[in-house]
């Protein structure tokens, strides 16, 4: 058996096993050393291949796709710094628990560390950010090595998707020649439809004794809070709101919790808690007896202060499998159980606890007051950043997704995303909270075929403009709302704003770019509305347009800061009077 046949059968068995293990999408960045993988993936009848030229963009594209599909996506690149460009997305995938199967091609062992071109140290390149790393053997095609290729592929998909999902990394050393021969008989090998490895991954659930102990602790306390941070389980919203109603507890729901949108009852949901808890006086008056949090820590910094200030009360954090996401640093009781099942079990153990109905009503009344102020129109033609997000939420389609950028965008969504019966998924890269790769992530989510609205600032848009090539290449349907305050608007809310000698150069960082030229270059539709009614109309039109649609709203950083602070001050004044 010659080299080409060994290369072909070994790689084909590996790729076929990816598909049999449930993986359907692979994002490939072109290169020479990855030729065996790229061509074999392209030939496989069951795999969707997406070609994205820039590796950093490609990895974030796959990240957004995996977030939306909630299953693993593979990425393939050549050797050298191509693999290093994956690193930011792999870090995000690790912290936000997104399954990626990272396949990097490499020089064979004899060409490493000898000055060969496009050769860097790729072994364990991503360090602790990969759940599992494996250096693949050089291609061979006897029965034992074909089984080896399959078991590594199957294990990679299983590991990426299992437990707390995350990235896995397999490194492929390939010798030349690199071109596979697909004319070989039975090139895909084993025709068994069952994957090499299978696993029955059950959901964790507390046993009756543990549930009795937990419910006993909670029923001795009257003023509890349920906090829902970022999470993606579609069964959770119904379960947690039923639990809250039965126990008469307010639910502080982060916009990424998937609890603010959908058909479930939302009477116990407090969307305005960030505005309420900005007041130190109100935080002191609203002291709870316990807090039980599901999902990651919410976006709201005001809630983080609240959690820290109540370090003396029982605080519970629920993780579906394992983890220690508790940045407040408080003494915590961890509950490792499926969140939706735990809520169902606690609902059934409601009993006659000490829940205080006035406590829930107080939160509901304060929430309504906060919403009245937040939704009040200023009767001005100019569009603030908060106003832009608010208008978007009025017209965003049912059965769609919002992918929101970091810095001010996600915070404005937190403030203005009120409960809705629309089915709207809210996605974000809140693992590492970076601004990089946001355009590519949103486009990756849109590859699933459902309408996606990407909301981000001008710096985030600038940072990943080359990601727009995927929209042109695949005619992806996405609306991008760029809130352009000509720089880093979030710094206007931070102490750095008081150091004007350095502020603009180091923190404001105005790019002074006309984004219309970039949108035209990638074949997209572009609009720049100047008022709130024009913005709503532009958004409506964008949802009727097939392809890339960019809507840019120009705002002023200083005016935006003052507008937000007036809102927060009015809310605090009204609530303290009440």
Largest sheet: 6 strands, parallel
The structure class reads alpha/beta
Mean pLDDT over the residues: 93
Annotated CATH homologous superfamily of the largest domain: Thiamin diphosphate (ThDP)-binding fold, Pyr/PP domains
Q: Quickly count the helices.
A: 22
Rounded to an integer, what's the Rg over CA atoms? 25 Å
Helix content: 40-55%
Name the strands of the widest sheet in spatial order: 2-1-3-4-6-5
Straight-line N-to-C gap: 84 Å
CATH-defined fold name of the largest domain? Rossmann fold
Concise overview:
This protein has 578 residues and is α/β, with parallel strands linked by helices.
Report what the structure shows:
- The protein is of the alpha/beta class and 578 residues long.
- The protein folds into 3 domains: 3-173, 3-Layer(aba) Sandwich (Rossmann fold); 208-367, Rossmann fold; 376-575, 3-Layer(aba) Sandwich (Rossmann fold).
- The protein has 22 helices and 18 strands.
- The protein has helices at 3-20, 35-43, 55-69, 81-84, 87-96, 143-161, 208-219, 236-247, 273-276, 280-285, 301-309, 339-347, 357-375, 385-395, 408-416, 438-446, 458-463, 468-474, 500-508, 515-521, 532-542, 557-577; strands at residues 25-28, 48-51, 73-77, 100-106, 132-135, 167-173, 224-228, 251-253, 269-270, 290-294, 315-319, 333-336, 400-404, 424-428, 452-457, 478-484, 525-527, 548-554.
- It has a 6-stranded parallel β-sheet, sandwiched between helices. A 6-stranded parallel β-sheet has the order 9-8-7-10-11-12, with helices on both faces. The protein has a 6-stranded parallel β-sheet with strand order 14-13-15-16-18-17, sandwiched between helices.
- Strand 10 (290-294), helix 11 and strand 11 (315-319) form a beta-alpha-beta unit.
- Helix 3 packs across helix 16 (438-446), helix 13 runs antiparallel to helix 22 (557-577) and helix 14 (385-395) crosses helix 21.
- The longest helix has 21 residues, at 557-577.
- The radius of gyration is 25 Å and the shape is globular.
């Amino acid at each position: 058996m010659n080299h080409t046949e060994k290369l072909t059968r070994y790689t084909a068995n590996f790729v076929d096993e990816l598909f049999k293990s449930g993986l359907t999408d692979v994002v490939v960045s072109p290169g020479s050393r990855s030729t065996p993988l790229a061509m074999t993936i392209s030939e496989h009848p069951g795999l969707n291949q997406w070609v994205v030229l820039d590796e950093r963009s490609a990895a974030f594209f796959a990240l957004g796709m995996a977030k939306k599909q909630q299953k693993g996506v593979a990425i393939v690149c050549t050797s050298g710094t191509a693999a290093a460009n994956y690193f930011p997305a792999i870090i995000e995938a690790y912290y936000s628990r997104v399954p990626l199967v990272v396949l990097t091609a490499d020089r064979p062992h004899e060409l490493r560390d000898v000055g060969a071109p496009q050769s860097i140290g790729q072994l364990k390149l991503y360090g602790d950010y990969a759940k599992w790393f494996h250096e693949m053997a050089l291609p061979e095609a006897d029965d034992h090595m074909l089984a080896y290729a399959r078991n590594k592929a199957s294990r990679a998909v299983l590991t990426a998707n299992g437990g707390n999902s995350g990235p896995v990394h397999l490194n492929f050393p390939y010798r030349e020649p690199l071109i596979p021969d697909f004319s070989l008989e039975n090139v895909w090998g084993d025709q068994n439809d069952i994957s090499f490895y299978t696993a029955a991954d059950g959901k964790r659930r507390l046993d009756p004794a543990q549930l009795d102990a937990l419910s006993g602790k909670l029923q001795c306390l009257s003023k509890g809070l349920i906090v829902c941070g970022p999470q993606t389980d579609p069964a959770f919203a119904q379960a947690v709101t039923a639990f809250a109603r039965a126990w008469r507890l307010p639910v502080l729901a982060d916009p990424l919790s998937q609890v603010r949108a959908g058909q479930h009852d939302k009477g116990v949901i407090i969307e305005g808690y960030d505005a309420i808890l900005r007041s130190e006086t109100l935080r002191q008056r609203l002291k709870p007896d316990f807090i039980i949090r599901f999902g990651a820590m919410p976006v709201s910094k005001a809630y983080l202060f609240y959690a820290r200030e109540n370090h003396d009360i029982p605080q519970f954090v629920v993780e579906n499998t394992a983890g220690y996401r508790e940045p407040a640093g408080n003494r915590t009781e961890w509950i490792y159980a499926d969140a939706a099942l735990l809520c169902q079990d606690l609902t059934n153990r409601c009993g006659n606890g000490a829940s205080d109905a006035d406590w829930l009503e107080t939160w509901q009344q304060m929430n309504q007051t906060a919403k009245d102020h937040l939704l009040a129109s200023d009767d001005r033609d100019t569009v603030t950043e908060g106003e832009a997000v608010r208008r978007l939420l009025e017209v965003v389609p049912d059965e769609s997704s919002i992918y929101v950028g970091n810095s001010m965008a996600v915070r404005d969504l937190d403030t203005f995303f009120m409960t809705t019966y629309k089915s709207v998924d809210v996605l974000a890269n809140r693992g590492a909270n970076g601004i990089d790769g946001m355009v590519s992530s949103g486009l990756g989510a849109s590859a699933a075929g459902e309408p996606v609205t990407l909301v981000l600032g001008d710096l985030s848009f600038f940072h990943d403009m080359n990601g727009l090539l995927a929209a042109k290449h695949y005619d992806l349907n996405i609306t991008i709302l760029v809130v352009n305050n000509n720089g880093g608007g979030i710094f206007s809310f931070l102490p750095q704003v008081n150091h004007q000698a350095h502020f603009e150069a180091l923190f404001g960082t105005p790019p002074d770019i006309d984004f219309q030229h970039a949108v035209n270059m990638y074949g997209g539709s572009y609009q720049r509305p100047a008022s709130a009614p024009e913005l709503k109309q532009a958004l409506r039109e964008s949802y009727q347009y097939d392809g890339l649609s960019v809507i840019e709203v120009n705002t002023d950083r200083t005016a935006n800061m003052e507008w937000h602070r007036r809102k927060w001050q009015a809310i605090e004044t009204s609530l303290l009077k009440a």
